[in-house]
Specification:
- It contains 19 helices and twelve strands.
- The protein is an alpha+beta fold.
- The protein has a domain of about 250 residues.
- It has a six-stranded antiparallel beta sheet with strand order 4-3-12-11-8-9. It has a four-stranded antiparallel beta sheet with strand order 5-6-7-10, with no helix packed on it.
Length: about 475
């Protein structure tokens, strides 16, 4: 039988059914060799474009945009809070926009009419002025409502719910505002622009969905993310809150109004500049928010996919790298010296001066011989006190006595009952210096629990996760399962 490259040449044989109809024998190969699934999806998108396909694409793009901002921020935030922020704004835009439209378009000079006629009816300054009310003020106010609700919850919730849903710093404001903006854009696109401007069963509708939502990272999300940063900053600096809030609202309103006004008069080059500026405003706000975050050491790297650092790096090394990016050289040297002092002090204490209770000695003696018991009785006193340097603070935690030096990190096994705020973190507390007065030391709460502190004057306060308490002689700390005292 003759053969040729690629198979046998069959002659004078009856043609088989599998040769006549290959689908009968080779249909199983479609899944792994025939690229059938992606082709089928393209066919569905081509022939069966409808509201379901549009909604799937819209939700995927919106979720991807919020995920991008989430990874840039690097802070763990409750998914319920993020999704809830988006849903709240979606519902407000869908069902409750009439009062806002009446105020900003009827009471205030924000009536601009059909966007297709803007260039014919107004000059650029006139349109920009009206859009400050119709688009900027109205829409940025609506989008920030979930963040304001979270600020309210910050003062009225307690425990883990307060941390999950509250706003304590700029990163919290950015995350919730970005999610809210995604919900706004979803409602505006899917329930207004697509039905009014295209046939829902055409590819034009899908094109509009992708075009409008894919660019929201430089639009609605960028404006609101910048405003959310300012709200979180106002929480950190309450004395200057009104100036911060006015600056944040004004910046978001101006960027938003500029984009809408320029879209009627100018081409893509101008819009590119405004979009890039808006995104840069939000991105740099995220960088600054990470730098000033009270939980900076617990933040994940600002990357979208994968893990930062070299292979084999430990969480501790990664945290050190994050801190090293923002710590001046002089502070680095001081921290290194403090860490060495702390390690030496802790080794000396653990080996030579650990507090030994009578119960520990008695328990050990039961398992020793007579000679060993006599040696133990003579050599180890009932209670040994550590010798601290003159003028140093010490922190008692249960039966453990530690020398307080900058950079001292308390681990979960040292403070029973406390857990870090994230899986990657190791410490539950850290001794820090006051940036304004380096001679003042504080203890930062890196745990997921709230501490109760009573100072020497009897004043009582709560130290929430991420907050720092001042270390002064006589201060008592209730960590939960154990107590502590500064001496």
């Amino acid at each position: 039988m003759a053969k040729r490259p690629g198979g046998e040449m069959l002659r004078n044989l009856e043609t088989s059914h599998s040769e006549m109809i290959p689908l009968l024998s080779k249909w199983k190969n479609l899944g792994n060799k025939g690229f059938f699934i992606p082709v089928a999806l393209m066919l569905v998108l081509t022939l069966y474009v409808d509201s379901t396909v549009n909604w799937i694409c819209a939700l995927a793009i919106s979720a991807g945009t919020v995920f991008l901002v989430y990874r840039m921020c690097g802070k763990a935030k409750s998914s319920i809070a993020i999704v809830g922020s988006a849903m709240m704004t979606f519902l407000v835009v869908t069902y409750c926009m009439t009062p806002f439209s009446f105020i900003f378009e009827k009471v205030l000079p924000g009536d601009v009419g059909d966007p297709n006629t803007w260039a014919q009816r107004f000059t650029f300054p006139e349109l920009l002025f009206r859009l400050l009310f119709a688009a900027g003020m109205r829409e940025e106010l609506v989008k920030i409502l979930p963040v304001l609700a979270a600020v309210y919850l910050t003062y009225h919730l307690k425990g883990k719910n307060r941390e999950a849903f509250g706003v304590f710093e700029p990163l919290d404001g950015i995350l919730l505002a970005a999610a809210s903006a995604a919900g706004f854009a979803l409602s505006e696109t899917m329930l207004q622009y697509v039905p009014q401007n295209t046939n829902i069963h055409s590819l034009d509708s899908l094109n509009m969905v992708v075009f409008r939502l894919a660019g929201d990272i430089t639009g609605h999300v960028a404006y609101s993310g910048y405003f959310g940063y300012m709200i979180g900053l106002a929480m950190l600096k309450p004395k200057d809150r009104w100036r911060i809030l006015a600056w944040g609202y004004g910046g978001a309103v101006l960027l938003h109004s500029l984009w809408d006004a320029c879209s009627a008069f100018y081409g893509n080059n101008v819009l590119f500049v405004i979009g890039a500026l808006s995104y840069a405003a939000m991105a740099t706000a995220i960088f600054k928010a990470r730098e000033i975050s009270p939980n900076r050491i617990l933040l994940k790297p600002s990357i979208v996919f994968g893990q930062a650092g070299q292979a084999g790096s430990t969480p501790r090394a990664a945290q050190a790298n994050v801190a090293a990016d923002v710590v001046p050289v002089q502070v680095k040297a001081l921290a290194a010296t403090a860490a060495q002092e702390n390690n030496a002090a802790e080794r000396t204490y653990n080996i030579q001066t650990r507090c030994i209770s009578p119960e520990e000695i008695e328990g050990a003696q039961r398992n020793l011989g007579a000679g060993q018991r006599e040696f133990l009785r003579k050599e180890l006193p009932a209670q040994v006190r550590p010798q601290l340097p003159t003028g140093s603070l010490s922190l008692r935690i249960g039966m453990r006595q530690l020398v307080v030096v900058p950079g001292l990190r308390l681990l979960p096994h040292q403070v029973g009952g406390l857990k870090p705020q994230s899986i990657e973190a190791e410490a539950v507390a850290e001794v820090t210096r006051n940036p304004q007065d380096p001679s003042v030391l504080g203890l930062r709460n890196l745990s997921s629990s709230t501490w109760e502190v009573v100072n020497a004057q009897g004043n009582r306060r709560e130290i929430q996760p991420g907050q720092t308490m001042r270390l002064t002689v006589g201060t008592k700390i209730d960590f939960g399962q154990v107590d502590g005292e500064v001496a």
